[in-house]
Structure formats: structure tokens, C-alpha cells
Specification:
439 residues, alpha+beta, PmbA/TldD fold, 2 domains, six-stranded antiparallel β-sheet, 9 helices, 17 strands, 20% helix, globular
Amino acid sequence: MITKKHKELAQQMMEFARKNGCSDNRISVGAGTETTFEYRDEQLEKLQQVSENKFSIDIFVDGRYGTYSSNRMDKKELEKFIQNAIESTRYLAQDECRTLPNSDLYYKGTDAPDDCFDKTIDNLQPDEKLQLAKANVEEVYKTDPHIISISAGYSDSSNFNYLIDSNGFEGEKAQTYFGLSASVSLKGDGDARPESWWYDASLFWNNLQKNGIGKKALERALRKLGQEKIKSGKYSMVVDNLNVWNLLSPIISALNGNSLSQKNSFLIDKIGKKITADKLMLIDEPHLPQAMGSRWYDNEGVATQKRVVIENGILRTYYIDTYNANKMKVKPTISGASILTFNQGSKDLDGLIGDLKKGILVTGFNGGNSNSSTGDFSFGIEGFLIENGKLVKPVSEMNITGNMLSLWERLAAIGNDARITSSWRTPSLVFEDVAFSGL
């Protein structure tokens, strides 16, 4: 954890950097541990425990900028490290857009840093963690003749960070993480080797689902037996809540200040304009208590706040950090998304499927690309053919093609099944008239 000694060292190094020529600097001191257990079939395959400290400094000197990091925490060593960093930065090209944020934008609260920290992590024993991974293998191992292999993994981590800068910012964060996952590979027809996975994750030990992960992974894999291509055409497309992020990611990336400043975004000059179907409300809610992605400030110290990203299909904000705001001569917002939430519909995945006479449920994306400048995309998919509200056949080796803007304009339904195991709380979604290529 971050101690008083860590903080004093950071403060001393900040002052040392200023005395040695820095006009400004920002210092981050981090400490953390991570444990991983992986169990495959009947054997422990991986056991790893890592503890590390990290010191990083952003240097602003003579109109130039550089960022440097070290895992050393000795005062004398860091002084030499900073002196060398300052001299190295002086060789870089000048960039007047590199500045610290306006201090008026900083987070200045005193909220408890342990809102996302579970002290239980310090009392968990290695045997207990290993047994979780092992049990999720054993609950399905050798229960079906199609099984080739099953693996399960447990991981946890604790991370602490102290951030200060010469413009007056000071902040502290602490967070834990617990995760349990399983994957299953099967022998299918011929050379086919269908596989699938499942997981659960939480910031708090008591909220972690500790069994049934292996069973769910096997269930999802067995449904893929007999996958095949089907006829090309336009279908209604249902995307389950695990995979919606593949379609949301190009949108969020296009809202990023770096993409905008480089003219590499299909959402340039779209503020106040319609970019999706009317039914979509996408909100960034960084202050949800004890939630993945919860934070009071970003990596620059700028205070986070609730933001409407898309309101009834209309784009309301970009994600612009200080550097890119200076380049574009606009006001900064925040460096990136925190917790993205959708407005919820009234039906779960089964209900969305049940409403369709014909369509395809997408349960996985297999390669492909999205053009960040135009929004054109082509993705490989796998999933299931839907007929009369039922899943009738597993499908694979098919592609979907189109444009992100036109796709999101055809958003037809939103599920009520948003997963909270991620900072992007995506529900299942339905899109109309999507072009699928197969046979």
C-alpha cells in the first residue's frame, strides 16, 4: 500500500525536479500485488504472484515534454534518475501543447480512497484461491465425451496509487479485483474444435460468483457443436451482452481526443447531431459506488462527473484530455470513459430472441476490422440462427459488413441484462437489417 514514506518521497522528488529545471512535473507512485492460479484438466498449470512498486514522472522543461518510469524507490537513485530524465527531455522537440491541466479542473474532494478496496484480500490463503480454480474444472471434467480440455483460472489484485503535480493536485486511489474464469474446448465433427468460456469478476470477494463458471463455459461450448455457414442475406442481429463492446468500442474510440485531433475519427463535428437510433441513451457515471471503473479523477487529476454521451441518439460530448484540447484549441472534458451505462429495456436475452421471426444471435466476433476514419467495418462472427423466436442452428464462418453510423441507427431493441463485471455495462442489443455473408 501507499505509505507516508511513499508520499514524502514523491513530494521530495517533485521539488527536486523543479529545482533542477522543470517548469512543471507530475509524479505517480504506485504499489500493488497480483496473484494468478491456472488449473488445466487435472494439473496446476500456473502459479504466479507479483508485487511491485512503480515511480513515474512527467517532465515539462523548456517547452518540451517527456515521461519516465522506474521501479526504484531510493531517494538518491531517483534524484540521479530525474536528472538524467531532464537532460534527455531537452533533446526532444518543443511542443507548446504539452501542459498540465488548469487547476480549476482538478478534483478537490476528500472522499475515502477505499470505496473500491476489499480488505478481505489480505486474509485469503493460497489454498483457498487454488481450490476455486480446481473446483470449477472438476465440476465438468470428464462429464461429456466431447471434452478435449478444460481450464480455469483465479486471479486477484490490489493496487494503490498516489498522484501529485506541481500545479497543486494531490490524489490517492486504492482498488482490489477478484476474477474467476473457465474455458472449454471440444471435439466436434471432423477437424472442428468448438470452444467457449465464461467468467465472473468483482471488486469485492463476497460478490464473486465462486461456482458454476466451468458448467456455464461447457454449456456455451456444447451449443456450438455442428456449426455451419448459412445463406447470405440481411437478418435482424441480436448481440449478447458479452460481445456488445465489440460494436461500442469503435464509437468510443472515435470520441477520443487523439482520434479527433489527428482527423482519424468518423465522429468529427458530430456534437449535437444524431449518430444512433433515438432509443439510445449512453451515460458515463463515474461515481457509482463500489463499481468497476468508479473514480473521482482521471490520470491527469481532472475531476470526473456524470456525462450524457448520447442522448436519444444525439451525441453530446467528446473525451478530450488537456494535450488534445490545446492542439484543437477547445475546452478539455476528460481523458476517457469511466463507467458507461445504457438505458435498459424490459426484456432479457431470451425475450429479445423470442420477439424475432428470423435473425442471428451473435455470441462471438472472430477477427475483422473497423475503419476509424469512415466507420466502415467487417467482422467475422459466430452464433445461432433464430427462427420463430427459437435458436435452431449454430452458425460460424460468417461475416457482417456495414458502417458503424448506419448500424447504430438501426438499433431496434435494448435488453435489461447489462453485466456489471466491466466498466462498460453493456446489455444485449438488437439491430435490424444487418448484412451477413455466408453461403
